[in-house]
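[agent] plan:
  1. take the single chain provided in the ticket
  2. run structure prediction with default settings
  3. attach structure tokens to the ticket
  4. add a short note for the reviewer (M.T.)
[agent] executing step 1
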Amino acid sequence: MDFYPSPFWHTPDWESSTTRPRDGYVVDEVLYAGDFDEVSIHLFPRVRTVRVRSVDAGSARLEALGLSCSPKKTAHIFINKMHRPVVESFRPTLFTLDSDGFTNVRRGEYVSRKPQRAMAVETLSMAGAIARWNMEACYVDDLDAVIERLRGAGIYFDEQT
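[agent] step 2 finished; step 3 output follows
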């Protein structure tokens, strides 16, 4: 399979990026890719998710904020409970690309401005993806409340919409 650069919006420092137009963001023609750790948030269907990596806040720190999380996970992905059936039935597809032609734009994230051909492809069950990445899907009633707790505690997180 061949992949081609397409419009992608990002902040000048690449701290935030999206496939949709956003005020104040720079539009760029790129093919976006992530390494093994970065890809975890992108394994989920197009529902709003928030990822906290264990290197940014361990389960004990999250527990202190009232967020029940399992220890020794590489990441905790928070998702609204109403999306649980969609998430659990989703089957993410992973493409392995040659690193040639990609530029690192931030921690674990890369872009290419030229087409790339997949070297391998694999489709997983969501349970298989969660196990492989040693992450946890944390279903919550109010994702906005989770974000406010994380911000209030100064915990770094990624949000996918």
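[agent] step 4 note for reviewer: The chain has a mean pLDDT of 93.
[agent] ticket updated
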